Amino acid sequence: MDFFLSYFILASIFVIVGLSTNLLVGVAGIFSVSQAAVFGVGAYTVGYLLSNDVMGFLPALVLAGALCLLLNVLVTLPSLRVSGDYFVVTSFGIQLLATAAFTNWDGITGGASGLAGIPPADLFGWSVDNSYKTLALTGVIMCIACLGFALIMRSPFGRLLLAIREDELAVAAAGRNVLRAKVEAAGLAGVFAGVAGGLYAVYLSFIDPSTFDLNASVLLLTMVVLGGARTLAGSIVGPFVVLALPQALAMIDLPTTVAASARQGIYGALLIAFMLFRPQGLMGRRL
Amino acid sequence: MTEAAPYLQVSGMSKTFGGLKALNDCSFAIDSGKIICLVGPNGAGKTTVFNAVTGFLRLDEGTMTFRGRSLNGSRPPQVVKVGIARTFQNLRLFEDLTALENVASAVPRQFGGEPFVALFRPLHTARGQARTRERAREILTDVGLAAHANTYVRQLSYGEQKLLCIARVLATGAELLLLDEPTSGLSGDALEKVIALLHRLRSEGRSQLVVEHNTRVVQQIADEVLFLHQGHLLAQGSVASIMADPHLAEIYFGGAL
Amino acid sequence: MLLLQLLINGLVTGCALGVIAISFSLAYSTTRIFHVAHAGVYTLAGYVAFALAGLGVPDMVALLAAMAVCALVGALIQSELYARLARRRATHLGVLIASLGVLAVIQNLLSGVFTPNIRPFASAWRGRTLSFGGVTLTQVQLVTLVVCAAVYPAALLFTRRTVLGKQIRAVASNPFLAEITRLEPQKTYIIVMAIASAMVAIPGVLVALDFGVQPYDGTTVLLTATIAVIAGGVGSLTGAFLMAVLISVLQNLSLLVISGEWSVGVTFLIFLIFMLFRPRGLFTRR
What we know:
heterotrimer; A: 287 residues; two-stranded antiparallel sheet; 12 helices; 2 strands; globular; C: mainly alpha; ABC transporter involved in vitamin B12 uptake, BtuC; 11 helices
């Protein structure tokens, strides 16, 4: 039972990050390997604020979301003005820089040994201190996030992003500001990722830099690619399926270090396979 | 014949691409309220003129003004706001969207065009969207595509797609339309429909600069003709005078007209 | 003294980085694909040489073998993956993601087989050093400097003087035109990828000889190399090489003031400065 609870809690958190990645990569078409870094910023923000009793859970979550929005906007703005490939470099750079920051900024992040003993979330006196309550919390926030995503996609803003994905020049010729829309999408993606990070921190109560490295970004991309880009269904299916993979792997008896590499290698193989044979993923539109 | 300031004026436009001089000291001025055809052999720089005026291209040299306002350095969305919009030779319609959605994408000032507005004011956004769709429907009716509002672009005929391009550019509200080969690939009924539409737009006051290869069409729609060759304006005048010039005919056709 | 030592170290790693940069530049300016998997090929080279050296193969032979293997792998990535994606009209984003997938597969395969830890070569001559003027250089560093510095003019000669080189440049400057003449761009892409991959194997092996093999290091190295390519101006081999040397020297000199873990930050800062003030790089082709 415990196992299922943990699976669903993690899956719901990753759905929220998945929506973020889907917005950025699937809808706005911006190649990003720095999603895990943003996720990490959200996690460390809430972790630090709660551990040092600076503020309550909900304000901390809002702050994390705002911080990640700002981060994404600052990162996307200069690089999108130049050609798209330059953003690949920026994205890698942000991810690697973030990992360096998480590992070396001992004072705030606890360095390589991470941040331990993050207190459980406290909502107006209701302490989220067991798995059932956590599932309730993450489940509710996941539903809110899904609602938000659906609203966005149906709005003129969402349609604008889809049109940009198809033909940027035609959108510019129709009088719309392409750059601004992309930066706004990135900012919004930041909010989702930051909130998810905050939830992650209070659920696990311990976070360390290795959780938010390049490998994690590859995992997030795999979820979007497998689930499917641009659709709500894809953002939900992706994390649930990909998170079940390690369990399938556990059936084969592998030493733990090889298991980690095997998992990551499989994610890579999935990326290749889906791009070659099913770019729309299981339930999405063509990436 | 006297105007306060020329409507659209370009002067000394030059642009070189990797060894090829696409525009070579190109200058001309046009008045409002007319259909002006831009003709010339392939590679004369006609589409390059469009690209430069609408901000898709940075000129090496030259100035462009519209109603006295400089266009140099403006990006495409800004040029649209100023009042000039263009279509593309290769259509560039959003194939995964319906005809209505294609036109709606160009309607300016849509409520809910920013993410936080869309999120926190969903009712307002929905109402705004209904208004946008109404406007788009009006425009589709104007061009004669009302019946196909909910058809996906890939399911439209080529003639209908060409009409849709014009509908989309009309949706921007621009007063000067730059149409890049609006009749190419069309014949018979579809061709007549486009010609009729262009005439009607002119009578409604929309100025048009049209790149056109079909001399019959030019004769039917043009109030004035600009003849471009090797990135430079060779002649500007009435249809009759341009058509009658044997020198121009030779450049254009290599012989007979 | 320390400054000179850091400078020399910077020159050595700069030349190695320079070769990585020009090999990436060759592939990128021709195929227009941001081939992140190149980092995997670079890493693979080190491991091929490592495995062979472990079997007693002399280092020189191991280097040539690594070059051959990498050439094959690079060619296969182009012909079996990128070409297929192009035929299926995959989006630019799709190709990027596929390339990332290849990188993940290569890195993790190596990690699984050889463990994720740094493993040094057992070569006898690795440790031998030379000293002069207060500066110490290992023999490996010397070889790296000489060999990599020689690759740069060789690459220039190749692209400017040989028929194949000129063909590659023609395809790179106008793939559409190449398609309708008889230049067969697809074949050219495979050849370019093979050459670029063989080229990147050189620093791949030499750096591994110096520091040991490690599965995940290639990403940061490639990132730095691509920054050199962009800052130097895409399409300019000279720009790429010179910027790579400059960045390496700056990175090493920065060790005087900041700790090594932030050197990524230095490189990234250089990149951001270029993006803000001179996005087309210093030596753009046109």
